[in-house]
């Protein structure tokens, strides 16, 4: 249903009944005034024109005389024409024997009415009549019943027809004006709808002639803002898609390198075994190292995926840091032995329980211990290196976890820059870009802890997490 149709129906449903009620009230008021003017005109003729004397002298043949128009306040009074007049006394007894008796309803109305005039309708009074009570209570002419065609039509029908015609004209004019006024807003709405359909909801912009300070302008601006949010969301999805594609490419490269190394080492060992050579245990150490790296890489990929959208959902529950540190140390002991590194750990005698995500915490500690073993002193100078993993319980439920190695003097500033960098999964490879350290920083930030990097007194570095 169109807006114009709704307006027309609203006029029909709301305006017409209201106008009818107003007309009815106006007509009733005017009719009351006309009845009052009629009574005053008749009373004036009876008092000032000698009508009372003539009526009391011969009530059976009394008439009002020639037609005269009397004024009532600002309105023209009714035309009192020749007609039959029946006189009644105070007991409502007719003076003429052929005059019909007054109905009880008419008598009650005359006695209770403040105006002193009542309309009478009935089969015996073809044109209707007015019963008018005089301001005196004696004699045969206390009540006059006047039958005349010049009285009752003037009291209602003519006035009602005139008011109905005027109201219909005003209502029609108002409807035309309303429909004309609706033209520009409806045209703006059509342009707005056309622009929305043409934009598919994404490239929408407010068309010319639609913007404004009214409700249509606000709707247009709201659509523009919603379209901008959609465009921003699409842009973020496209950026995430590009980053995911680059991440898959980089991850494929990261996984391919250790797999290639493992494959080549296994092929070499297979050839040596087929040739009857004895394989030393040290020949398996590169395979163990690459296997450990593969495990670290896959775990870091899972952690990085949780941090991909910004702030990850951290599932906090009771975590025993003492048991967690011992698990990390036990898991990395074979790798440390293969690398010629002594991995030691120290934990309090009692459990250290905190609220946190055990999977992310264990991933962060594993990254720190793995980096310390791979970059320890044994790989650089040939001597046995040392890595220490310690847990310290502090007052108030606080703790400190430190991972220290005694390798060559490290560039603390560079390590801090790597820690502060974002998790970029789309450039370089995991070994070069420090993905493990950045995951450590992300885990620390997610738990609202702190991390510090300090040079070790015997060389190497100490990375400590405090919470």
Observed structural traits:
single chain, alpha+beta, Heat Shock Protein 90, four-stranded antiparallel sheet, 14 helices, about 55% helix
What does this structure look like?
It is found in: Membrane. Its EC number is 2.7.13.3. Keywords: ATP-binding, Kinase, Membrane, Nucleotide-binding, Phosphoprotein, Transferase, Transmembrane, Transmembrane helix, Two-component regulatory system. 55% of the residues lie in helices and 17% in strands. By secondary structure, the protein is of the alpha+beta class. Among the domains are: 3-65 and 78-161, Beta-Lactamase (2-Layer Sandwich); 312-466, 2-Layer Sandwich (Heat Shock Protein 90), CATH 3.30.565.10. The strands form 4 sheets. It has a 5-stranded mixed beta sheet with strand order 8-10-11-13-12, with helices on one face. Strands 3-6-5-4 form a 4-stranded antiparallel beta sheet. Strands 1-2 form a two-stranded antiparallel sheet. A hairpin with a 2-residue loop joins strand 1 (68-72) and strand 2 (75-80). The longest helix is centred in the middle third of the chain and has 60 residues, at 215-274.
Write the layout of secondary structure elements.
Layout: H1 3-48, H2 51-57, E1 68-72, E2 75-80, E3 84-88, H3 104-112, E4 117-122, E5 125-133, E6 143-147, H4 152-155, H5 157-181, H6 183-199, H7 215-274, H8 285-306, E7 317-320, H9 321-339, E8 341-346, E9 353-356, H10 358-374, H11 378-381, E10 385-393, E11 399-405, H12 412-420, H13 430-433, H14 435-446, E12 450-455, E13 461-466
Parallel strand pairs: 8-10
Antiparallel strand pairs: 1-2, 3-6, 4-5, 5-6, 7-9, 10-11, 11-13, 12-13
């Amino acid at each position: 249903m169109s807006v114009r149709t709704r307006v027309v129906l609203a006029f029909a449903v709301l305006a017409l009944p209201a106008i009818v009620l107003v007309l009815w009230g106006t007509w009733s008021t005017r009719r009351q005034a006309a009845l009052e003017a009629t009574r005053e005109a008749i009373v004036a003729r009876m008092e000032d024109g000698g009508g009372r004397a003539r009526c009391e002298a011969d009530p059976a043949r009394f008439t009002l005389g020639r037609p005269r128009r009397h004024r009532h306040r600002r309105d023209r009074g009714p035309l009192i024409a020749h007609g039959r007049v029946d006189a009644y006394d105070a007991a409502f007894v007719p003076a003429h024997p052929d005059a019909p008796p007054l109905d009880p309803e008419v008598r009650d109305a005359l006695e209770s009415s403040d105006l002193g005039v009542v309309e009478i309708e009935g089969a015996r009074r073809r044109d209707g009549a007015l019963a008018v009570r005089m301001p005196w209570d004696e004699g045969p002419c206390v009540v006059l019943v006047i039958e005349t065609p010049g009285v009752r039509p003037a009291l209602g029908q003519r006035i009602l027809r005139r008011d109905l015609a005027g109201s219909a004209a005003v209502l029609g004019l108002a409807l035309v004006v309303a429909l004309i006024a609706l033209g520009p807003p409806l045209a703006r709405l059509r342009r707005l709808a056309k622009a929305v359909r043409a934009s598919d909801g994404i490239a929408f912009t407010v068309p010319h002639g639609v913007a404004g300070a009214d409700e249509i302008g606000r709707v247009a601006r709201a659509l523009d803002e919603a379209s901008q949010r959609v465009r921003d969301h699409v842009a973020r999805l496209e950026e995430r898609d590009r980053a995911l594609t680059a991440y898959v490419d980089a991850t494929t490269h990261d996984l391919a390198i250790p797999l290639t190394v493992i494959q080549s080492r296994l092929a070499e060992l297979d050839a040596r075994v087929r040739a009857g050579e004895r394989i030393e245990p040290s020949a398996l150490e590169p395979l163990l190292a690459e296997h450990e790296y593969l495990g670290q890489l896959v775990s870091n990929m899972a952690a990085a995926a949780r941090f991909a959208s910004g702030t990850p959902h951290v599932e906090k529950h009771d975590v025993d840091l003492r048991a967690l540190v011992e698990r990390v140390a036990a898991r990395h002991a074979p790798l440390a032995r293969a690398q010629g590194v002594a991995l030691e750990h120290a934990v309090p005698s009692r459990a250290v329980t905190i609220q946190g995500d055990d999977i992310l915490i264990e991933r962060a500690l594993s990254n720190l211990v793995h980096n310390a073993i791979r970059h320890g002193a044994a790989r650089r100078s040939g001597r046995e290196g040392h890595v220490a993993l310690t847990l310290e319980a502090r007052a108030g439920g606080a703790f400190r976890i430190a991972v220290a190695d005694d390798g060559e003097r490290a560039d603390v500033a560079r390590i801090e820059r790597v820690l502060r960098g974002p998790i970029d999964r789309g450039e370089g490879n995991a070994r070069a870009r420090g993905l493990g350290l950045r995951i450590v920083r992300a885990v620390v930030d997610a738990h609202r802890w702190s991390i510090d990097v300090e040079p070790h007194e015997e060389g190497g570095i100490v990375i400590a997490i405090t919470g």
